[in-house]
Amino acid sequence: MKVWQQLTNRSVDLRNAIVRGMAALGIAAMAIAWFVDPAPAQSLLDKIKNGEAIRIGFSSQAPWAYPGENNEPLGFVNAMTLDILKKLGATKVESVVTEWGSLIPGLQAGRFDIITGGMYILPERCRNVLFTDPIGTVTEALVVPKGNPKGLHSYEDIRDKGLIYVTGAGYDSVPTAKKVGIPNDKIMQVAGDPEIVQAVKVGRADAGGANYLSIKGMIEKGEGDFIELADPFTSPAKPGYPAFAFSLKEQAAVDAFNAVLKDYLGSDEMMASVGKYRYDKKMLPDGTPTANLCKG
User: Fold this and answer.
1) Can you tell me the distance from the alpha carbon of 239 to that of 253, in angstroms, rounded to the nearest whole number?
2) CB-CB neighbours of 55 under 10 Å
3) Does 7 reside within a domain?
4) Rounded distance between C-alpha atoms, residue 108 and residue 130, angstroms
């Protein structure tokens, strides 16, 4: 055999050996990856069982949910949350405060375990989170400058007069305004209720939409010199049904919360916890099931 043939054969043999070696290493790597696959994240109920802190996520929306000193969870939804978690055996709770529009992304990213901001049950949200049974029934309000100088009593008034409407980013009032026909460039979206009130107060917007409870509370605390609620106000929107929200993997936690809610809603214990936040028995759920609300 000629020298060049010998060298060629040796080169082929070496190349084949390298390929076989790489294949073997690949199989080994796959096997290693199989055995070191990270364990799935703990469920909320497992965290409670193991004594770990439960992280609740909310935006600063008084009297629904807002932070106090040292990030203490305040507001009637947080008060209900603490009562229920205690009944389920939780001993540690941590607050994570974020903007309203970041609540669902934050839950999906695992920044917190429960959304306690009083989020309404809506079909588009039901595709991204799991809701418990409703914890209240809330109507919408229209906030206007003191004296309602432009005579606004409906979305149609705002649309027909070509005015600026302000509401919260991610609020259900956004699609309502669009459905009525208010143009996108006339809909101002801000972080939350305080920003809605401020926009109307300083004239950046002509009217604002938010839930009745929140705006009423802000008027009672001093904003009544500058704003008021349009009365009467005709809204095409149905009442809002707030609930606790969990990730799509937490059906067991939803079931556990619902089991507690059956006896808790409207009880003396609950009313004692939420009464100081202006939640009264008129706001209790009307029996509408979450499944129906998710269908729209």
Assistant:
1) 26
2) 19
3) no
4) 11
Per-residue pLDDT tens for 265-291?
A: 999 999 999 999 989 898 999 999 999
The amino acid present at 110, given as its one-letter code, is G
Judge whether 87 and 210 are in contact, CB under 8 Å. no
Beta bridge partners of 67: 73
Domain encompassing residue 151? 140-229
Q: Is residue 9 part of a domain?
A: no
pLDDT in tens, 139-169: 899 999 999 999 999 999 999 999 999 999 9
Residue 144 shares a structural domain with residue 126: no
Residue 44's nearest CA partner among 36, 35, 57, 53 is 53
What CATH number has the domain bearing residue 223? 3.40.190.10
Least confident of 10-14, 156-160, 212-216: 10-14
The number of folded domains in the chain is 2
Q: How many whole angstroms separate alpha carbon 189 and alpha carbon 208?
A: 10
pLDDT higher than 50, residue 15:
no
Rounded distance, CA 116 to CA 58, Å? 5
How many other C-beta atoms lie within 10 A of the C-beta of residue 188?
17
CA–CA dist 90, 95 (Å, integer): 14
